């Protein structure tokens, strides 16, 4: 009998928790464990600990499988990382940092940063090929117009996987930055200007007025230096 200690951490971001059921499978070089349920309630920033009992030693743990399924309502879950401690005390880390949506199974490799030539096990080679195919499907390109740079082949950002989209925090920060820049341009006389600049010296004068300007408690600097 081999007992593995597992710690599963939920990300500390908005709505990262879930009430869907999450289970885990450990995959080693000498076999894999049975599918073990972790919990059906995860809170943001919370870490769940459990023991996975195996009939024999699995060898070095090379990847894990996280299984998510629901009984009633869909509730996405953001997994931060998983740590597995083997019976001999060896610690394996599996950084995840992604959303799991719907009824799905996600495979996460052990975070040791190995290259393609380091994949000796067939299961790791298959995982790498599957990951590459998934990325090629997610990042398909198209020509928006002749002479323009290529862009993603989607109609809107809502068609993208949630792990590709901006998070709520990043989107809020980006919007706030645009508001501050707009206020800076307005106060410097640049935003609503209807006539051409008379000289570069005039532009320098306009932008120098915003040096250290305090807007709503935030220090705003000129967006352009000449």
UniProtKB/TrEMBL annotation:
Pathway per the UniProt entry: Lipid metabolism
Residues the UniProt record annotates as site (Essential for stabilizing binding to COTL1): 99
Domain PLAT: 2-114
InterPro entries in alphabetical order: LipOase, LipOase_C, LipOase_C_sf, LipOase_mml, PLAT/LH2_dom, PLAT/LH2_dom_sf, PLAT_LOX_verte
Family membership noted in the UniProt record: Belongs to the lipoxygenase family.
Cellular component GO terms held in the UniProt record: cytoplasm
Domain of life: Eukaryota
Species of provenance: Xiphorhynchus elegans (elegant woodcreeper)
Residues at which Ca(2+) binds: 17, 75-76
Protein name as annotated: LOXE3 isomerase
Keyword Calcium: yes
UniProt-annotated location(s): Cytoplasm
Keywords attached to this entry: Calcium, Cytoplasm, Dioxygenase, Isomerase, Lipid metabolism, Metal-binding, Oxidoreductase
GO biological process terms, semicolon-separated: lipid oxidation
GO molecular function: iron ion binding; isomerase activity; oxidoreductase activity, acting on single donors with incorporation of molecular oxygen, incorporation of two atoms of oxygen
Ranges where the Lipoxygenase domain occurs: 114-226
